[in-house]
Amino acid sequence: MISDKIDEVSKNSIWREHCEKELANTQLNTNFSVSNIKKMSILPDKPNYVVPDTRVDKHEMDAANTLLKSLCSVRDGDLLPSERFELPMTSSQEVGGVYKPLVP
């Protein structure tokens, strides 16, 4: 292989020349301009932007909240794991949790 025959100083010199050539050809365009500012779209609307046009009355809101509470798993959030589940669900509940013993 060619790279095995070239010493480190020569490799560094080749790399320096390569970087200098690349930087010589690099030009930044700092003169940004818009031909007609009135035709330029500034920012598009958000894809999930919705203006709600339906009004929900108190009865419908209460029914929806009741349904949500019946389906939600957080309804037993204030109970201890031993009160929620018949058996321990994790190994830490087996070791340190308060639960009913398997064998009386």
Notes on the structure:
The protein is mainly α. Helices cover 43% and strands 0% of the residues. It is built from five helices and no strands. The chain has helices at residues 2-5, 8-25, 58-71, 81-84, 91-95. The longest helix is centred in the N-terminal third of the chain and has 18 residues, at 8-25. The protein is flat, with a radius of gyration of 35 Å. The relative contact order is 0.05.
Give a brief rundown of this model:
The chain is mainly alpha-helical and 104 residues long.
Supply the key terms.
single chain; mainly alpha; 5 helices; 43% helix
Computed CA radius of gyration, to the nearest angstrom = 35 Å
What proportion of the residues is helical, as a percent range? 40-55%
Report the mean per-residue pLDDT as an integer. 81
Number of strands: 0
SS-based structural class? Answer: mainly alpha
Strand percentage lies at: under 5%
Cα-to-Cα separation, first versus last residue? 77 Å
Q: Main sheet, how many strands, which sense, barrel? A: none
Return residue spans where pLDDT drops below 50 for at least 5 consecutive residues: none
Question: Which term fits the overall shape?
Answer: flat
Query: How are helices and strands ordered from N to C?
Result: HHHHH
Please report the number of helical segments.
5
Q: What topology emerges from the helices and strands here?
A:
Blueprint: H1 2-5, H2 8-25, H3 58-71, H4 81-84, H5 91-95
